[in-house]
Structure formats: C-alpha cells, structure tokens
Amino acid sequence: MSTQHRHAGLPITVLPESDLQHVRLLELPPELLALLTGECPPRLQLKSKEDLAGNAKDANLVLCTPDRTYNVRQVSTSNTLYLTQTAEKQDPGGGPPKIGVDAVAKCDTTIELLSTTKQSAVPFIKPALPVYSSNGNYASAVPVTKTELFSHIPLSQAECEESWSELACFESQHPPGCYVPSAKVKAEIWQRAVTAATADGINLTDPFPADDLPAFAMDICQDWPAELVSSVLKGASNLTPGGHFAIDETKAVRFTGLNLLQVKSEGRAIEATGFLRAWRDLLPEAWRAKCEFAALQGFYALQDGGSMIKYADSAPATTATTESKSLGAKRKWHEKFAASRKKT
Q1: What's the pTM value of the predicted model, to 2 decimals?
Q2: Does residue 8 carry a pLDDT above 70?
Q3: Is residue 320 part of a domain?
Q4: Domains contained in the chain, number
Q5: Using one digit for the tens of pLDDT, what is the confidence trace for 261-287?
C-alpha cells in the first residue's frame, strides 16, 4: 500500500504483512539511557537463573548493569507501530524520482525494564558451592570458577560480589574451584587474626592491599590456604578509596557474631548471656560494647523471654521489583506520546 498522488507530499509505502520484519522495541529507563549514552558505557548482561551446567531453572529474564538488576517484561501494544526507512520513489506522472518512506518492520510488543530493589545473592551462592570445613575437607563437586558461578546468578556483578564477600567465599587453585568456608572455619581464623594482631601490637583496622594479607595474618597461612584467610578478613572489611581493604569495626562485630552463633547454636537455642561473653572475647576490647543482638538482625531468634538465643537464617531468596512507572501491561502509545508533548 502506498500514496499515489504526485502532490500528496512524502510518499509512504507499507510492505505487505508477509514481507514485514517483526521486531520488539526495548524501552530504557532514564538512568540506564544516561549510562549507555555517557562517555564510558558499561557492559550489559542478560541473565536468568541456571544451574552450574547452564540449564535454565527460571523462565524469568533480567538485564544487569555492573551494579543494578532490571527485570525484563514483554508488553503488548494497543496501537500498531512501524519502523521506517527512506527510499527512492518513482513519480507515477513520469517526473524525477522522489525520496519517500518505506514501513519495513512492524512492532507488536515492547520490552520493558523494571528496576529491582537491591538483592542478596546468598540464596544462589550457598547451594551452588561446596563447604570448606574446619579439618580442611570439602564436599566433592565439579570445580567452578567465580566467573562461571556469577554468570548463572540473575543479579548484577556488584550484588554477587557483596554476597560473595559476606559469605567469605574463596577461589582456590589447590584444590581447584570455589568454596564457602564453614562458620567454624571463619570463627577460628578470625580468632587467630585478632590474637596475632594484639600480640604484635598492630592496629586491626590498618589497610592492607587487595592482593595481599596484613602482616599479622601471615603465620595463619601455615595452617590455612592464603585465599581462605584473605576471604575471611575481607568479609569483615570495606574497600578504601585507595583500593585497599580495611577491617571495619561495625562489620567485624556482625561478621564475628553471626559465625559464632551459627557454630554454637547448631539448630538449637543456647544461653544468651554465655553467647554474648564468647562473642566479646573474639573482639578487641574497644569494640566489645557493640556486641548487641541488634547487630545480628535477621539471623537470630530469642526464646524463653530473651534468656535463650538461636541462629535463624532469614535471608531473602526472591527478587522484588520496585513500583513501575509504565502505563500497564497494555501499552497505550498515543497516551504516552500525548503526555510527552504536553511537557515540551
């Protein structure tokens, strides 16, 4: 179908339905559009939940920037949209050719990106990795690299990294693969680190290089893999502006308390005041006042009027979306365009 009158203006031709390409448009949120049109556009990833063999475990798709995750949703349009391109048109009256427009593709659906709230990757990482126990044994599993592991988790790199650090996971060459150290391992290594730093008169919060260990931790590597020792210390640390790690008091208090409670509780309630004493003993004197149950929020339950405490893992396992600003599952383009014109 095309306009034929020589004075009708710009000639437009719509190809037959069988010749039209069928496409879907991707609608970008303003903040993502700004990133992609900036000086250093980030790498984007399309991901879904998969097992380590690459088999899909969830039909939902997400798009990830380095630090944010967007749910991908397909939306039907209420109006027909065409994609056009310029083309040379012959004048039916024998005049010189004119520039016209061909509608070469039709869009029946669009792809929306819905921003999600910050999520924990812990529920994805823990089931996927073997546990490294206090006797150096570990459950047998097919070795997987950190990069492979993250590629199967439907969350951004930053969200995966944060949970990796929270669990003190480490990647090893001998034995090969990635591991989650047990709570007992983390508690033992932390106790030795505090004891060594105190004995050497070293400030526990002094920064240390990302690819190295603080001086007080060197001897610990005689009994434990260096990658494991590093992961435990980094689990209680923050990254400094200079690219180093520094043990953070608040983070260390929580890290120590969670691991100790998990070790001592073992699925049963234990005496609360006794746990508090043991927790404080694992920390420098100046930090002990911060040992309060509130620091373990989300991972403990009090019983018998508060005299007993039990480890309770209540980490979220699902991804929630924030409120969408879209017009709904049935896209009304004329309404959206009208709203845009009113703003200009």
Answers
A1: 0.79
A2: no
A3: no
A4: 3
A5: 999 998 899 999 999 999 999 999 999
**Considering the domain boundaries, does residue 221 fall inside one?**
yes
11 prior amide bond cis, ω within 30: no
- For 118, 122, 182, the CA distances from 318, given in Å and listed in that order, are 11, 11, 24
For residue 342, pLDDT over 60 is answered with: no
Q: Which domain holds residue 76?
A: 12-115
Residue 267: what pLDDT?
84
225 and 302 both lie in a single domain: no
Q: Rounded to whole angstroms, how far apart are CA atoms 45 and 69? A: 9
Cα separation, 110 vs 73, whole angstroms? 8
Alpha-carbon radius of gyration of the chain:
29
Choose one of 220, 247, 274: the last residue of a domain: 247
119 is written with which tokens? 């999520």
Give the pLDDT mean for 115-137: 87
3-state helix, strand, coil in the chain (%, to 5): 35, 25, 40
Alpha helices in 97-225 (DSSP H): 122-128, 146-151, 157-166, 183-200
d(CA 153, CA 335): 37
Q: Are 234 and 264 found together in one domain?
A: no
Domain stop point among 115, 145, 169: 115
For residue 272, the one-letter residue type is A
Pair (132, 219) in one structural domain: yes
Least confident of 82-91, 120-129, 277-286: 82-91
